[in-house]
């Protein structure tokens, strides 16, 4: 079946294969058990190391807050602060503008990014499996649409390349230019601090002319196309983004301000190695006080900690589910029993994953906060107690 709706095309493909036998399904389940075991063990590592990382980062931040020295001026360098952790805020500045001569564009900024997109065919799949006449049939609908994409889409992997062929490369490459010297006042930022300046904004091209005869400006894009309103596959459009405006611009406004906490070494701002083991090299946009900066860092640490805890618990739940899948396979010939076993295995995985996750987190806190570790260990018993309380008592003999 084939249909064409404007630039979107689609067709349906049906494949079938014999329903797998018991031994084949058992073999697949055994392979899943091995994957589940690896996932299960990785969950322990992730949960345990995450707690140590979180506590180490919190201690490093507390140490930094107690030692940081706010600078009175960003335009003079005091030898008294040599080697110390300092706090300063001010406007960004760079030695010379960044430019793209191919499009006649220049800007006084820390970073300039050229983003190139090509108009290409994109394939989408929508599959549906069902059983019919003792066979497993898979109905897949392939749809094709033309879209602007930053990466080359390999049409050779399409189910039907004929009529949907894309070029193998872009005639113009994307790139990001970074200023070699970035300062706040008289202080030069380290590479690590410059890397943190990544709040990219699209650059307006309204004040620029068409750079070449074969390039047309439309809105905030340069088009390599005969008709930008009706592009063809292989046409290009180019946009620009900047981060860290470092000079007053008549179209973009004043230079961006940043707040930095780092170690002073001469006129350099470099990483500070805390006694707790972490590296303090902090940069935020805007003018923030010392307390605001460290509060944001603590909030970031908390969010990262909970995200990794959730990932560790999910990894453990999936691992246990895969390792116990064999019990489902052994009874999947009996619909009612199969459904009951499936519910029971999911409940088992949920309770065990929750208990083991809490125990692992408690072990990570044992050497730092033993009281909290004990409370978490006691809390890990709750899921098992709840699960046992839902099991009906045996009838009296």
TrEMBL record:
Keyword presence, Nucleotidyltransferase: no
Name of the gene this protein is made from: Tmem43
Organism: Promerops cafer (Cape sugarbird)
Family: Belongs to the TMEM43 family.
Record GO biological process: lipid metabolic process; nuclear membrane organization
Keyword tags: Endoplasmic reticulum, Membrane, Nucleus, Transmembrane, Transmembrane helix
Pfam families in alphabetical order: TMEM43 (PF07787)
Coiled coil: none
Residues annotated as transmembrane: 30-48, 306-327, 372-391
GO cellular component: endoplasmic reticulum membrane; nuclear inner membrane
Protein's UniProt name: TMM43 protein
InterPro entries the UniProt entry points to: TMEM43_fam
Membrane topology: Multi-pass membrane protein
Major place of residence: membrane
Cellular location(s): Endomembrane system; Endoplasmic reticulum membrane; Nucleus envelope
